[in-house]
Predict the structure.
Amino acid sequence: MRESIIMKVHYGTALGAVVLVAVHVLFRITMMPYADSLAYENVISNYKFIPYAIMLELILVLLSVHGFNGLRVILIELKQGKSYERAVTCGCIAAMAILIAYGSRTILMASMGMT
Amino acid sequence: MSEATQMAEEKSSTESISSSKIVTLRIAKFNPENDDVQKFVDFKVPYERWTTVLDAILDIKKHLDHSVAVRYSCRQASCGSCGMKINGRPRLACFTKISELNSDVVTVEPMNNFPIVRDLVVNFERLFANHKKMQPFVIREDTEVGWTTKEFLQTPEEHEEYIQFANCIKCGLCNSACPTMATDSSFLGPQALAQAYRYVADNRDKGKDKRLKIIDESHGIWRCHFAGSCSQVCPKGVDPAMGIQLLRGYLLGFRK
């Protein structure tokens, strides 16, 4: 994949994450006192509200893609070499996939009441 | 490096040449074939208001130590041969007056981010290879002047688009100042990227897509952090940092 496409995704995920995290924070501070928003029942009810759970899933995906691509960029700037760079790219993609899978499992289980 | 730095004997040429002021020139000496570490040798040299660092180095070569390795040619900031680190900043030695440095000690070192050939001379192989990679010439199928055609005329505005980038003298100061080049040995560098922009922005050129493809790689244009130090050190007023951002505009679709 061309680097410009990867960087477009990088910038796009950053913008998307900023917008969605802002919505998420606004929800936390406008719907109820902030301290209450962290109460167990309120957190679980967020997951059970499907549109909100989808937003959390989107935040998870956007931040994972952005974060692990950022890590890849930092690592290939630190050291060069074909095999090293391939290992960094594969490692970052694998770590991203694992994080998204684990996070999605948590969101899914919480929204289905499997807690 | 400070531990490795060794002070060598001080020499003075003040007896032979009269001058109102004396400066200590600390010259980095290093021969990769024989030396393990770089050492600094101090020389006291007289200078006038107009004396450049290159003049002082050549004075040392003539009167004190002929073994100091330095590359120079035009002495008027046109050839780009005498780039070096002067008091920690990449500059052209022929374009830097000692009197303007406001320092009693002037430290002269080879440029960063280049392999050292000897003393103040660095290897430009990679700089020129990356420059060549950018295909630094106007690409188009038809010829400029024929029986029925004239020169490809440009408006002042079209000329203005790229002309500052055509002033590059390939001195390597921008690459030396670039923080990305310090860690990423495969990075194309601000010099090459600025030259890519010079031709991409030239409306006579038809090789835009080709060049954009060359710079759009994992160690290409996207590794620039926009520190801007390349533009700060350019002795010819070229702004590679701006050129790189404008090139990104083409790749992101903001510019056509």
In short: DSSP finds five helices and no strands in chain A. The two ends of chain A are 40 Å apart (CA to CA). Chain A has a mean pLDDT of 94. The interface with chain B takes residues 2-4, 7-8, 11, 73, 76-78, 80, 85 of chain A (CB under 8 Å).
